[in-house]
Amino acid sequence: MTTEAADSTEAAGTIAPAADPGFLQRHGGTIEYVLIPSAALAGALVVFGIFVAMFGKNPLDLYFYMYYGAFGTWFSWQNTLTRAAPLILTALCTALPAQLGMVIIGGEGALLIGALSATSAALVLQGMPPLVVQIAMVIAGVVGGGLWIMLAGALRQYRGVNETISSLLLVYIGLAILNHLVEGVMRDPASLNKPSTREIGAANMIGSIPGTDVHWGLVFGLIAAIAAYILIYHTVFGFAARVAGGNIRAAKIVGLGVSKLILTVCFLAGGAAGLAGMVEVAAVQGRTNANLAAGYGFTGILVAFLARQNPLAIIPVAILLGGISASGGLLQRRLGLPDASVLVLQGIIFVFVLASDALYGRIGFLKGKS
Amino acid sequence: MADGSIGLWTVPLAVLGGAIRVSTPFLFVSLGECITERSGRINLGLEGTLVMGAMSAYGISYLTGSPWLGVLAAGITGALLGALHAGICSLPRVNDVAVGIALMLFGTGLAFYLGKPLIEPTAPRLSAIDFGWWSDIPQLRAALRVNVLFLIGVALAPILYWAFRTTRWGLLIRTAGESSDAARAMGHSVLLIRLRATMVGGFLAGIGGSFLSLFYPGSWNEGLSSGQGITAVALVIFARWDPLLCLWASLAFGGAAALGPALQSVGVTSGYHLFNAAPYILTLAIMIITCSPKRTLTGAPAELSITR
User: Fold this and answer.
1) Cis status of the peptide bond prior to A130, with omega within 30 of 0
2) Residues 6+ apart with CB under 8 A from A214
3) pLDDT tens digits, B196-239
4) Which of B107, B230, B274 lies closest to A168 in CB terms?
5) 326-365 in chain A: CB under 8 A from chain B
6) What residue in B sits closest to A259 (Cα-Cα)?
7) Quick one: CA dihedral A41, B43, B237, A171, positive or negative?
8) I need a labelling partner for B107 at 20 to 30 A (CA). Which of A216, B1, B47, B67 fits?
9) pTM, rounded to two decimals
């Protein structure tokens, strides 16, 4: 720290003489967190443009339609925000355990189990006042998804099972349970082509934010992200979690209950993804079927990494990636690109973002050296 | 019994056939991952490699008319993806687990993108060797129709076991995996060793993918692989980084994966999806039994991030 301070006084004169001399020194880290992911994103877009150009499409058309399909009109904004809502929640499923140094990639499984639990709650409580049903659905979704990821956390803590692999295996197991129940005991006999559960009922749907077609799930997501931010950066619990994530041995020495931290954080993480499942049922699908496995859980991993596991940064990143997936339909219709092009772009972005990790602390002018 | 005189024997026969047929992708991916992990790095992206391998094998087989060129193309595609993984991981402060997740998404997306025109056409497949000619039970003959790739995989396991123990390359890979400092002190580039180990691992995983599209199930579609790649990565941990144990574990997993379809064929349809999830449940159960929070796993390469 002392050398950095010395650097800043030396560098102040050469780099930013007119402005606040210590500005880069104090905010260099924040600037890095914005600049490097943005550069990675731009690099990924360029590579994707080249990729598309190899198939004879004009990259400029591509960028235009991506922008237009994501943010060009009020209609596309609503589409983007609707897709961003579950992404915020599934990204939290990766970002919260990341504070403890855990890599959880099973958000998709927690989403499915959350959706299944929320639907079950709604079907059991048929005839009750809608508000009661909706609250029960939220609780069921959060608890279902939470317990699902808590299982991965418990296996890591008590059995030493790697949480990355176990959470991913739980995705496939969760999907099998969903299919089993949806085609078995929970099947609505009227759903012939696409096995589904019975509908939760129009009265129990959570509806749209007034004046828009964007459902209330977006508000759920925003509240969850802000709450997660406060929890991690402004509470003792969050501080303890970050200490344990930084150095597990130190955390044990100062007497932190690491097991409790891991289980609680994993429960909250899974609860967020489970809430995403509840939102997809109660605001979009109206019932549970295999449509719910739409990949929100996997895109959420990318959102969390692009946001550098920061819950507040997840909000704009989720909107950005929601926009990319919202523009997929337009790319398909206007440019004839396959629907998988969104997946390819997401993959390229992910690769660039991870490779850009090597750049932190190495950008000359941000270190105050010339 | 309507389907023949052997009745319920259909189930164990189908499981045997499955152990031979379904296990091949598990076998190749796990042997490839075994090499990569022994060098001290984990490549979770082999799920994407498997799908890319399946797609490129099918495409090349369709274009050239030679399924074996398809197998080769799948291997080369896998090696390139491996090189990409190793290249990004050799940058400072880049997490190999996260890169694997990224390549899993990237490989799957790219395969779906490039493979769109391949869903309709039929490509020449790999042929099988009929080891069941002596029997007149059709189910047994079906179970013993064995693909050459399976035999290559079976032969590869003891060869790798031997190579890890005695050859110069085997020792170098193990040194890089146990102590990168020691390898560096001997004057070897750890990054280069890991690059090669990841490329060979990707090559084998790509071939595993070619088996999916060119033999069993034997067509290209987007639902071809559902987690076989990641199951195989977990299988390496279960097999304690031992190529011979990888072989037995792959056979067991192939049998487990064939259980669902086999039961369905005799009329047990109720738990179909749960039986399909058998390999994942089995993997998780085995990891729960064999892992321990108190110690690192026996046989685990010391440099491996995932076991530390």
Assistant:
1) no
2) A78, A81, A82, A85, A208
3) 999 999 999 999 999 999 998 888 988 888 788 888 888 888 78
4) B230
5) 338, 340-348, 350-351, 353-355, 357-358, 360
6) B293
7) positive
8) B67
9) 0.88
